[in-house]
Amino acid sequence: MLRISGGRVYDPANGIQGEVKDICIADGRIVNDVQGAAVRTIPASGMVVFPGGVDVHTHVAGAALNFARGMTPENHRAAAKFIHSPLLRAGTGGITPTTFATGYLYAGMGYTTVNEAAVPILSARHTHEELRDTPIVDKSSCVLMANNEILLDLFEEGETERARDVLAWLIWAAKGYGVKAVNPGGVAAWKWGKDAKVLSDPVHGYGKVTPAIIIAQLAAIVDHLRLPHPLHIHCNNLGVPGNVSTTLETMRVLEGHRAHMAHLQFHAYGGDDWTTLRSEAAAVAEYFNAHPNLTADAGAILFGNSVTITADGPWQHLLYQLTGRKWGNLDVENETGCGIVPYVYKGSNVVNAVQWAVGLELLLLIDDPWRIFLTTDHPNGACFWRYPEVIHLLMDASFRRECLRKLPSRALKRIVLPDVDREYTLSEIATITSAGPARALGMPRKGHLGPGADADVTIYNESPDRGLMFRHPRYVLKGGEVVVEEGDIRKVVDGRELIVRPAYDENIEEYLRPLFEQYYTVAFENYPVEQERLEGADIRELG
Amino acid sequence: MGGKVTCTLGEVKNRADLIIYWGGNPADCHPLHFSRYTLNAKGKHVPQGRKGRTMVLVDVRETPSVRFSDIFLQVRPGKDFEVVTTLRALLKNRPVDEARVAETGLTLEQLQNLVDRMKNARFGVLFFGMGLTMTRGKHMNSAAVLTLVAELNAFTKFVSMPMRGHGNVTGADVVMRWTTGFPFGVNLSRGYPRFNPGEFSTIDVLVRGDNDAALILGADPGATMPQPAIDHLARIPTIVLDPKLTHTSRLARVHITTATTGISAPGTAYRMDEIPLPLKPILKSPYPTDEEVIRRIYEKVKVKPAWSPAAYAKVPCA
Amino acid sequence: MPPTTLENATCTFCGCVCDNIGLEADGDRIVKTKRACGLGEAWFKNHTAERLYPDALIDGKPASVDEAVEAAADYLYQANMPLVYGLSNITCEAQRKAVALAELVGGVVDSHTSL
Amino acid sequence: MITLSLKEEPPVPLEAEALSPDVVATLRYDEICALPMFLGKRQCRVDDHFVVEGEASDELEIRGDAGRVKWIGRGMTRGRLRIVGNAGMHLGAYMKGGTIEVTGSAGDWAGAEMSGGLIRIGGNAGGQIGAAYRGSRTGMTDGTILIEGSAGLEVGMRMKRGTIAIKGSVKDFAGLEMKGGTLIVGGAELRTGAWMTRGTIVSLTRIPLLPTFAYSGTCNPTFLRLYARQLGTCGFSVPCDASAGAYLLYTGDTAVSDKGEILAWQPHAS
Known about the structure:
The complex is a heterotetramer of chains A (about 550), B (about 325), C (about 120) and D (about 270).
Chain A: E1 2-11, E2 16-26, E3 29-31, E4 40-43, E5 47-51, E6 53-58, H1 63-71, H2 73-78, E7 81-82, E8 91-92, H3 99-108, E9 111-119, H4 124-132, E10 138-144, H5 149-156, H6 160-174, E11 178-182, H7 186-190, H8 211-224, E12 231-234, H9 244-253, E13 259-261, E14 269-270, E15 278-279, H10 281-289, E16 294-297, E17 304-310, H11 313-323, E18 327-332, E19 336-345, H12 350-365, E20 372-373, H13 387-395, H14 397-405, H15 409-412, H16 426-441, E21 457-461, H17 466-471, E22 475-478, E23 481-485, E24 488-489, E25 498-501, H18 508-519, E26 538-541
Parallel strand pairs in A: 1-4, 1-5, 6-9, 9-10, 10-11, 11-12, 12-13, 13-16, 16-20, 25-26
Antiparallel strand pairs in A: 1-2, 2-3, 5-21, 7-8, 14-15, 17-19, 18-19, 21-22, 22-23, 23-24
Helix pairs in contact in A: 5-6, 6-8, 9-10, 10-12
Chain B: E1 3-7, H1 9-15, E2 18-22, H2 26-29, H3 33-36, E3 54-59, E4 71-74, H4 80-91, H5 98-102, H6 108-120, E5 123-128, H7 130-133, H8 139-152, E6 157-162, H9 169-180, E7 186-187, E8 194-195, H10 202-208, E9 213-217, H11 221-224, H12 227-235, E10 238-242, H13 247-251, E11 254-257, E12 267-270, E13 276-279, H14 290-302
Parallel strand pairs in B: 2-3, 2-5, 3-4, 5-6, 9-10, 10-11
Antiparallel strand pairs in B: 7-8, 12-13
Helix pairs in contact in B: 4-6, 4-8, 10-12
Chain D: E1 2-6, E2 14-15, H1 21-24, H2 29-34, E3 36-39, E4 42-45, H3 46-49, E5 50-53, E6 59-63, E7 69-70, E8 80-84, E9 99-102, E10 118-121, E11 144-147, E12 163-170, E13 179-188, E14 198-203, E15 213-219, H4 222-232, E16 245-252, E17 260-267
Parallel strand pairs in D: 1-6, 2-7, 6-8, 8-9, 9-10, 10-11, 11-12, 12-13, 13-14, 14-17
Antiparallel strand pairs in D: 1-5, 2-3, 3-4, 15-16, 16-17
């Protein structure tokens, strides 16, 4: 039992905004009170208490990220070293940290739950193996569906109901949590070297199915199945100048459904080409503010090295041709693909400067912190361990202005950031890093400090230097255990996986089996991830 | 700078109309590759199977795979790198020296024809085997085909894939990448992973005599490695875990018999395209699994005083 | 012992890792394979669950697994630069533990890939 | 001057990046003795393996067969490092300035990713001299490496500037993916200049070439005369007398570029 005593508590989900208040913990959960001699007290007066961070969109495990690790030995050489000790596993940090380092880095920053945002079903077993080796944090994952050819074929034939059962079966086969749509139809077209750029045009190889149909159908199915997390969508035309029209059109298609717009920064550009690219964050924010069915994460970029990893194959080929650097591409039969290109964002580059501003603009112009969350689409825009830099930029307008002064003047004409004075409050930071993403993910025990919540708590020394404050939490508790103290990992616990079992008609297997034998190269029985593999998983059954 | 453009085998089955095998003999070494994944498989977009595909075989000698191919290109031993580099130039319509091309055993015309086929394929795939990766040039031969294939994507859809041998060698790559960041040849002596093929690759380590103990798992270097490497294994304490008494077991100080992977030991193995598959044992072995024995050794070492200083001294360095 | 059967078994002999193999076992041997190639069939049939070898050997003499584990741990612990090599014909679960062990004994870990 | 005499050949590689003039320049005798090194996984002290003499000097001499001692002179910026005997891998890697002289041979990766300074090797050298480490985009970016004997694979891989001169012959892939600078070799095995985009490789004998190099005539370039004069002072002779012969010029690698040059000396028939 444990009492965090005298800290200033920010628990936006429970309407607590900086009150001095004790937080009590028993059996890994938050409780109203604890009594007796066995209670350890963490004196937190003068400190700031947050619910543990929740990352709604990150890439930390699985075939694509592991592919990237193998491609970039030079990055690991330059990365922070994680040295083996009796407590810790060895590893490397940097842009694509090893699994153990990933757990240590997230926990070290006060994050206790992460959502791996792109899992192909065929290699989901691999993702779970890596998540098992990612310590401390709890983990959920989103399953890639918007280019699944069995689903697309059903949409083509108008078989909505069957598609619903197939999708539900697939989520459980992958032991996933949510549904992810990446470049709907575009990756399927990429299998022929094509893309899907217009939402209303049929996808290459199909007669009727358009990206718009895929988006609408998936969103409807996710709502129908009452999945805790809405459709998680990476829009078509990621990163392309002028893509704002596609993004707004996608949002219109989603009217009447819940949806989470992933890494919105990469989808809020105006202009006709790279030389005229400009921010359209204001237009996106205006639409978004008026549509409460949507949530989003920022996908902010920071200057420096990154590796772009996305299921968006065609975009990655373009980026390879633009950069002339390494290119990895991995197409997954019938389901999805992924591309990998190392990239350096430079402050002196006008395009990168605009991208940097767009991420911040979205975070500042979207007025409801419960609907926009802090991410960098790790490792695409920047590494997750750089989140404190973004927090600093959000909380400190004068620091932002200082950074803006370093940008090329041509970039300043294409952004609105210089005119934005908003500064985030601590309560708003707690919302965009924890309470909001937990609510959007539909995780009732995460992102708050009310009784019954998992005792995932982060305690900061308050400092006017917000970057420093958020980089080095004083304590981090995971499930009631003190895992980080004074910047050092003190205890390593196993995080658990959160998975969802939607209801479906068991007979769907009889429909799938013959298709499977025709299109796939693994046995139908060997396709689903075995439940025994996920020891200690938290399975939510949906009726 | 190259990279790697690949896919899972089902993509090949469903789409490939041009299949190139380079430096390998799948008919003998991967007997079901043709029927399950490539040439003879009926795929979603290649419903006619074999008739819808063209197969090119590039190798230094005639093997039983030749009769499966439509086109056989016999390259002189050790000239693969020259051929692939020439193809890269031809792809971009750049000049090459015809006489030096002929030294590869193939004519400029043959190579131009191959480039044209590759460019005009709807979906092409290049599988490369040990005949490419273990002959003169080694990793650069692999780099050459990977780069050629990446560059082909400016013209059409093209992928490549190594024809990995040994059962779960792919799994070893995958596991090492997520645990250490590097696919093989990882040195952990300084407490964190370091990678440098040539320095930390086994043959080099053994031949130079750089290690002073060895634990051999699921391999028999005593049967396959160069003699100086084997001599070194015999000199130092070598420990072998294997379902059988191997050549290496005979020169080892310690041998522990283990259950056979996938037959009497459960777990996971990765296919050559990095798809993980479950291993379901049918027999009950009287021996413990490798996993269990390694765990027991780990636990024995773990209770000994840590050899590593709690924090490594920061070595002063310029 | 009655025969036992297994469908969709996975063959780890070569990199194809075919996972549609039918197996039939009688006692401690696999007696029948379905859909396996010649190499796969030989692989399955040649690996029995019979006790053909001693549990362990130390310096060529039969020993218990406990003794051999102890000896292995001592050698690896004492070494300045141990090498953990192979990893190809073992499960991923064993590979994960092998990497952890290599880390614990401060050595080099490598697979057939480096050949 | 500080001298370190190796007591005996270490049983496994000894990693010794502390052995550089920058580090020892300001250290007292006992501090030098206590500098950390790693024998495999075990941390040890300099005086576990070396007899130390002298202190506080940026002239450092290492005596004995240090062929198993790695990372000597890593990143050094100044001073003089002399090795009387052999040196192990990564000698002078990431070096920025100063001088390294080895009387014997050096292992692989000598001068890898160096950006300045001079390395002289009296015997043979291993592979990857002045090269980029795996995955890095650029090898040496400046400085000079002179080798009296022969060298191994991938010499000058991805080098961008600077000079490597090798009296003897090199193995395959000399100047692999070279981006600039000058590589002079006595001779070479296969695939010299593979995938080079810029830079100059000079061979003092005819060498086999990839099909992707185009013959562009003969020449006696002026810049070589400058090199010849400079290298002559170090005992390296580079022929440049038009009356004695000419260089055959090849450009490539056409698989990636036509801006790289290979010059192969051909004496006039006498």
